[in-house]
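Bump. Still looking for Agmatinase structure tokens.
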Amino acid sequence: MDFLYTYETLKLEFPLIEPEEARFAIMGVPFDGTTSFKPGARFGPTLIRHATLNLESYIIDYDVDIAELPIADIGDVAVVAGDPRKTADRVRETVEELKRANPNVIPILLGGEHSQTLGAVEALKPASYVVFDAHLDLRESYEDNPYNHACVARRIHELGVREAMFGIRSGTREEVEYAEREGIAWVHARDYDFDAFVELVKPLPEPVYLSVDIDAFDLSLVPSTGTPEAGGLRFWEVVEAMEWLVENKRIAGFDIMEVAGSELGDVTALTAAKLLFHFIGAMGKEKP
Ligand SMILES: N=C(N)NCCCCNCCCN
Ligand SMILES: [Mn+2]
Ligand SMILES: [Mn+2]
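Sorry for the wait, here they are.
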């Protein structure tokens, strides 16, 4: 099917199907118009798709071959350079088109700045937002723009979506106070463990939107990202949390954001690609 705002890109290497028939629909959002520190998020979606070429489609952990699952790739959303709100509007409209064509499909965004998660959340209207991130992203505005990537969790909270954040190690005093005042739960990367995750996420209402800002991981795994921060989470810590969510909660959508870089085979994209395959594999295992 055709979408108003997407265009064709590099695809995964195994056969894909049309979005109308798919259980998962991958879409790239190559937006980096408000990147504050390290550039290259516009290449994130392409770098992640390219990095998947290195991976087996058979996921050894789950005895699932994701090449046998119904996956679509609808390409990349055409961005409005420098305008995160207009681009997120296109993301929202694209996800709405997708859900109209196939109400059961789970959109998977590859980004691209975290600002773009807002468009998907607006379209999907989840009850809860679970996010792995180094940053609180609770600013009222950043660099004169309320739709900057550093404000995305605040905009989502304002929609009435319940939030829980993990891997946090950066924010302003105002953001910390806002979280406290608004009852937004977050766990510092230093304090993170599986039990802390389950305790906070268990009571959350469904469906849940799961967002992974790639900078949540330890810097050694994700050197190419917009605002890198030392001291993050291990790969399997995030995978184990994701597995619990997939087993225990209805998932509305998933994204892997803030992947940047300028070289094929970048470590960051390899981390993101493996996480992507594990998400699809875990979903394929749990709910056939
Ligand atoms: N959500 C985010 N990614 N926030 C990070 C914003 C950039 C903070 N720079 C502060 C630099 C002060 N010298
Ligand atoms: Mn971040
Ligand atoms: Mn973020």
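Residues 133-135, 213, 215, 227, 258 surround manganese (II) ion (ligand 2) (CB under 6 Å).

Edit: fixed formatting.
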